[in-house]
Specification:
Largest sheet: 8 strands, parallel
Distance between the termini: 49 Å
Strand content: 15-25%
Helix content: 25-40%
Order of helices and strands: HEEEHHEHEHEHHEEEHEHEEEEEEEEEH
Structural class: alpha/beta
Number of helices: 10
Bound molecules: the ligand COc1ccc([C@H]2[C@H](O)[C@H](O)[C@H](C)N2C)cc1
Shape: globular
Length: 448
C-alpha cells in the first residue's frame, strides 16, 4: 500500500450510534431549492435541456441576468410544516436540503456572504423553519453544501499562479466559516452532503479536505459525511490511492444503483435519484421518462436489499409549492410504505441468493427476512431458495396479514403459493426461518 497522510483513516464501516441511526433510516428525501427554480429551465422563451439547477452555466443565460434573480425570490407559498407532513406521509426518515448549490446563493442569512436569502424580498431564513418542521415530524435533516461557488470572487477551479493560490486560501477559509456557521445555527442536523468537489483546486488539496472533515467532526461529533468531500494527497476521490473508502459512506451512486452486493464492497452507501431523467432543481417542462411509484419502490427496495440508503429528489417551485407529479409520487409511495415500511426500515442484505421475483431484505440482526415481490410468476408460485441448513417455518403476506403455507420441494427449497388475486403493487412476505444448529428434525432428515 501507498503511505498516505490524507487517505482513509478507518477501514470498515463506522459502528457508532449516529451511523447506525443513519443506516436504519434507509429512505430519504432530497430537496433542491434555490434561485434556479425561478427560470425553471427556461430563459427568454428558450428551454435549457440540461439540469435546471445548472442553467447559470448555459451560454444563452447571461451570468449577470441570473445573478439578479435573487431580487425576485419570494416563496410566498412556502409552508415548511406542509413540506414535512408530505415527507412524513411518504415514509422518508431523513431529508437533505440544498443550503447552497453551485450558484452560491445561500438559503440562510450567512454572515459570510451578501448573496443570501436576506437580500431577497423574502428576507427571512428558510433553513431554520424547515429543519424545525422536519425534526418535529421525526425526520432527520442533512445539509447539502456545494464547495463550488460560482458567485464567490475567490472561487478558482484551478490554481495557476500566486494570485490564484491567495484567492484559494481565502476561499477555503470562507468554506470553513460557512460550514461552522451552519453547525452553530442548526445544531440538530445530522450530516453534510457535499457536492462540487471535482475541480483541481479542491482535488489537489487533500490535506485541506481531510483537516476540514476532522474540524467539522470536532465541532459536531457523530456528524455523517459521505465520500464526496475528500480527496487524498494524490487527488484520488471517494476511494483513496489504496482503494479504501474515504468518508462515512460511498456517495457516488447518483442516478444509478449497484447491481449486486459485490458492487458495494461491504461499505455503507447511499443512492440519490431524480424523478425525471436528470432534473434536480425545478424544471417547468419535464421531458423523457418520469419514474412511476413502482419504479421508485423497486429502487428503494433494491438499495435496501444491498445494504444501502435511497434518497428521492424533489424540486420545489420558486413559490415554495411542489409540482403535481411529485405530490402524487409522495402519496403513492407513502400508501405502500404505510403497509410495508417495516421491510425497509432497519433493512439489510439478507445473505440469500437473489431470486427472479424480487428482493430479500433482512431486518438488521434478526431472523426476520422479507421477500419483496415485484415479478409474480405466471404460476403464482414463488420459489424460495434458502442457504444450506436453513429451514422455512412460516410465511405471511403483510397485506391483509395472510398466512402462506410453504410447500417444501427438496433440500432447502420451498414454493410459496400466492392467493389468486392480482395486485399492482409489490407484495411483501415475512419469512420465518430457522438455521441448522437449532432446528428440529424437519425436512433435512427426509432429504438425506
Ligand atoms: C457534472 O455532472 C454533474 C455535476 C453536478 C451534479 C449535481 C447536481 O446539480 C445535483 O445537485 C446532484 C446531486 N449533484 C451531483 C450532477 C451532475
Amino acid at each position: 500500500t501507498i503511505a498516505l497522510q490524507h487517505g482513509a483513516h478507518r477501514t470498515g464501516n463506522r459502528t457508532d450510534a449516529d451511523m447506525a441511526r443513519w443506516r436504519s433510516l434507509r429512505f430519504g428525501q432530497f430537496i433542491h431549492w434555490g434561485l434556479y427554480a425561478i427560470p425553471g429551465g427556461e430563459w427568454n422563451g428558450k428551454t435549457y435541456n440540461g439540469a435546471a439547477e445548472w442553467i447559470r452555466s448555459w451560454k444563452e443565460m447571461p451570468h449577470e441576468e441570473y445573478d439578479k434573480l435573487y431580487r425576485q425570490f419570494n416563496p410566498v407559498n412556502f409552508n415548511p410544516q406542509q413540506w414535512a407532513a408530505q415527507a412524513k406521509s411518504m415514509g422518508a426518515k431523513y431529508m437533505i436540503i440544498t443550503t447552497k448549490h453551485h450558484d452560491g446563493f445561500c438559503l440562510w442569512p450567512s454572515k459570510y456572504s451578501k448573496y443570501t436569502i436576506a437580500a431577497t424580498p423574502w428576507k427571512k431564513d428558510l433553513l431554520g423553519p424547515m429543519i424545525d418542521a422536519y425534526n418535529k415530524a421525526g425526520i432527520d435533516v442533512h445539509l447539502y453544501f456545494s464547495i463550488i461557488d460560482w458567485n464567490h470572487p475567490d472561487y478558482r477551479a484551478s490554481l495557476k499562479n500566486a494570485a490564484d493560490s491567495a484567492a484559494g486560501k481565502r476561499f477555503q477559509l470562507f468554506v470553513k466559516n460557512q460550514l461552522a456557521e451552519l453547525l452553530q445555527r442548526y445544531p440538530t442536523i445530522k450530516g453534510f452532503w457535499f457536492d462540487g468537489t471535482w475541480d483541481d483546486s479542491w482535488k489537489n488539496d487533500g490535506a485541506f479536505s481531510d483537516e476540514l472533515e476532522q474540524y467539522l467532526q470536532s465541532l459536531h461529533p457523530g456528524l455523517v459525511m459521505g465520500s464526496r468531500l475528500r480527496a487524498d494527497e494524490k487527488g484520488a476521490r471517494h476511494f483513496d490511492s489504496n482503494g479504501r473508502l474515504m468518508g462515512d459512506y460511498e456517495q457516488g451512486w447518483e442516478r444509478k444503483l449497484p447491481a449486486t452486493i459485490e458492487d458495494v464492497h461491504g461499505n455503507d452507501w447511499e443512492a440519490v435519484m431524480t424523478v425525471p431523467e436528470n432534473q434536480w432543481g425545478y424544471h417547468a417542462k419535464w421531458t423523457g421518462h418520469v419514474k412511476t411509484v413502482n419504479e421508485i419502490l423497486e429502487m428503494l427496495v433494491k438499495s435496501v436489499s444491498l445494504n444501502g440508503n435511497f434518497v428521492l429528489n424533489f424540486g420545489p417551485k420558486a413559490d415554495g409549492t411542489f409540482r403535481t407529479e411529485e405530490q402524487q409520487l409522495a402519496a403513492g409511495i407513502g400508501q405502500w410504505m404505510k403497509v410495508n415500511g417495516e421491510a425497509v426500515y432497519n433493512g439489510t442484505y439478507a445473505g440469500f441468493e437473489k431470486q427472479d421475483w424480487g428482493y430479500y431484505i433482512r431486518k438488521a440482526g434478526t431472523d426476520s427476512v422479507y421477500m419483496v415481490v415485484f415479478n409474480i410468476p405466471v404460476s403464482g408460485s414463488l420459489r424460495v431458495k434458502l442457504p444450506a441448513r436453513t429451514e422455512l417455518t412460516g410465511a405471511s403476506m403483510l397485506l391483509g396479514n395472510t398466512t402462506l403455507t410453504p410447500e417444501w420441494i427438496g433440500r432447502n427449497e420451498y414454493f410459496l403459493h400466492l392467493p389468486g388475486k392480482t395486485t399492482d403493487s409489490p407484495v411483501v412476505i415475512l419469512l420465518k426461518t430457522v438455521t441448522g444448529e437449532n432446528k428440529d428434525k424437519g425436512n433435512f432428515e427426509k432429504a438425506k
